Every structure is written in C-alpha cells, then in structure tokens.
Amino acid sequence: xxxxxxxxxxxFRRKLRAFLMVVSIFVAFLIFGVLASFERAFNSAxxxxxxxxxxxxxRINFTQPLPLAYLDRVRGVEGVRVASHWNWFGGYFQEPxxxxxxxxxxxxxxxxxxxEDFAFDPAEREAFLRDRGSLAVGEAVARKYGxxxxxxxxxxSTIFTNRTTGTRTWDFTIxxxxxPARDRVDTNLVAFHYDYxxxxxxxxxxxxxxxxxxxxxxxxxxxxxxxxxxxxANSPFETSTTTEGAFNKQFAAQLGxxxxxxxxxxxxxxxxxxxxVGNTMVMAIRERTREIGVLKTLGxxxxxxxxMVLGESVLLALLGGIPGxxxxxxxxxxxxxxxxxxxxxxxxxxxxxxxxxxLMLLLGLVTGVVPxxxxxRMSIVTALGRD
Length: 387
Description:
Largest sheet: 6 strands, mixed, barrel
Structural class: alpha+beta
Strand order of the largest sheet: 4-5-10-7-9-8
Mean pLDDT: 83
Low-confidence stretches: none
Order of helices and strands: HHEEHEEEHEHEHEEEHEEHEHHHHHH
Shape: elongated
C-alpha cells in the first residue's frame, strides 16, 4: 500500500473538517496573490517612468491646480528640453462605474514627451493633432469598449460641467488609437485637447493640473527641480517638483502603503491559519494514536510514519493554496481593466506564484512538524494503551 494513499485517506477521514481547513488556506492565498500582484503593479508604475522626466504640481497637493502661465516660465529654465501639461478630467463612459483615466493635454508637447511610450499610426497622430474635438484612445481602453477610429463617443466628468451644454458630458471623435511602445507602459487612458476643454468648462479656466518636464538628462534633474521650485517660492501657487517615478509612487501612496498592507494581511492570515491547522493536526493525530501503534507493530518505521504525518499537512496546504493562487490570477485579470494607470500590468506573475508555493510548503511543514514529532516519539505500548 503506497504512502500517498494512506496520507490522502487519513487527511479526508473527516471530510467536513478537511474541507473547512482547505477553504481557510484557499482564502489566505487568494488574498496573498491579489495583494502581492497589486504591490508589484504599483512598483512597476514607478519603474516604467523615465529617469529624465519631472512632474511639477501644487505644493499643497497634486489635486490643487496651477496657473497655465507657469508653463512658459518652466520652459525657460535651463536644462528643460520640452515642457507640457495635463489636467485630470475624472472621466467615465455612460455610467460612473465605467471609469476611464482621462487627461486634457497640450497635444504636440504631450506626444513629444511620451514619444517612447506610445506608438501612433502617423496618419492617426496627425488627425488627432489637427482636430481639437478629437480623442486619442489607449489600446486597452479601445479593446475594452470595442471602439474604433472614427467612432463618436461621449465622455462625462465627475468634476467638471460643460458650459455649452449645461451637462457633464463632452462628445469626441476618436482620431487615434495608440499602443504601448515598450514594456510596462499602460494604455488604459485617453487624452484630448486642453484648449477645447478650457473653452467649454464652466470653472477653472486657464488652470492646469500639473506641468510635465523632460530634461536634457538625469544629471540636470536636481538643478531643474531647484530652479523651478525656487522660481515660484512665496507665490500664491508654490510648486513641488519631483521625478516621474517619485510622483507615481506618491500617487499610489494615496491608496495606502501597499507593501505594509500585504505584510500585515498575509501575516495575520498565516498566523491564524497556522494556529487553526496546527491545532487540528494535533487533534487528528491524537485521534489516530492507536492506529499509529498498530502501524509500528506491523513494522512501519518511525521515520516513515513521521513523513506520512508531515505529508498530510503539506498536502493540505497545497490543496488549499494552489487553487487560491489560481483564483488570485483570475481576480487580477478581472481587476486589471479597472485598475488602469493606478496599477498598470496587474497580473499574477510567476515570481509571485513561486513565492506562494514556497509559503504553502512552509505552512505545511510548520503546522505538521509538532504532530509528526509526537507520532515519531510515541512508543507502541503508549499508543496501544491510550483511549
């Protein structure tokens, strides 16, 4: 009779108890997989940033505006190769739950700064630059809603009102659909002309969300940061300038310290499961005390019994953990379109899966070692004499 057969039969002797333990482990690894994937995606957003791009925002908070007039002054700073701006629109399609990352931009300079990130068909690029009422749509958004070049689509804002219609909706023609030009670039966004937006919005005219700067090289970043922030010091709209990577990290931090959340949640889940599974395994082995005595009487070596008991806890961890990681991968696939630019490339990567399997093995070993040692040390007389 093979050991795996015995392990499997012993593990599912009490089916309800085994099922509940499997479900507990499943939930723990589902949480681990999703949170670890979010952490990786946030870090990816920072890593994908160019090292010679800076973001200038209001010193109070990046949600506060800056005067449009700041743009030309920033362009005059030594070390600035090109400067553009963008304004957060708070866009959605048809219903607020269909949230889309939407920016009102200065098209020519915006596309110049992100020339190595977004790939455009030349004719579509020119059409977008020429038509002030047009929209440039990321490939991920176009695929999600089935949009094509030439489609007429309405976008609504959670923030602004269109003073020409009295509604929160603007109508656009899709002039271009752009693709990622390199790895880890997210296309879950759309952009349209700031001038069109500025003329039609009901408030906040001639203000922008932030200034985007491409410097002549990373070596001049510190000098440009000091010059820009010094230029607007003690003004009504003081600025705070950081690298694009640091800005992305700060933006993600608005959702909380993801690394700390992952650590605390996973640690809490594992400690809870460790106690539950460990205690259950001890009880299960105690229930089988006489059986262990019989096995030893039949000539089963103590080491073999030790491995069988340890195998039960490892098998239990794998039966709950592997489906948990599979469910986490499916959850990430569902959440990825909604995560958009906040967590670009959200998915369960092999490194996270391997780490999860390692944690399963660790969980199985830690919870099984005490009952396995008890079985190893138990004498035949003690085992057969226990009620």
